[in-house]
Amino acid sequence: MGFFSFTKADRILKRSEFIHLSKTGKKLQNRHFIVTFSPGQFQRSRLGVTVTKKVGSSVKRNRIKRLSREYFRLNRHHLKGNWDINIIAKKEANGLESDPFFASLDYLFRKIS
Could you tell me where the beta strands, DSSP code E, fall in the chain? Predict the structure, then answer.
């Protein structure tokens, strides 16, 4: 398993964990994303991605999820400490090229750590 891997253990999957994160976590946002985060109970930072149908078609939603996971996979080593993070895409995230997409997430992730 490599340094830049992204396994099931790196993901927030249970609905109860998403709800707990939204109730207890801190919130940051910009034009494209809302990020809720709280210190994690595990030995690694974990990511959840939420993209509602308001954002666009399934193809567009899946692209946003894929790019979000890719950003996290490549940049989580910059985070200080272990965090549970949920990225919630806004309508404005739809159709973003990958560079502004990553820049937008980078801005929020820098504020976390």
Answer: 26-29, 33-39, 46-50, 83-89
81: left (phi over 0), alpha (psi -120 to 50) or beta: left
Q: Which residues contact 12 (CB under 8 A, 6 or more apart)?
A: 18, 21, 46, 47, 48, 84, 85, 86
Q: Which domains does the chain have, with CATH numbers?
A: 8-112 (3.30.230.10)
pLDDT tens track for 25-41: 999 999 999 999 999 99
Q: How do residues 69-96 score in pLDDT, each as one tens digit?
A: 999 999 999 999 999 999 999 999 999 9
For residues 10 and 42, give the distance between their C-alpha atoms in angstroms, rounded to a whole number: 10
Contacts of 74 (CB under 8 A, 6+ apart): 4
Q: Specify the pTM.
A: 0.94
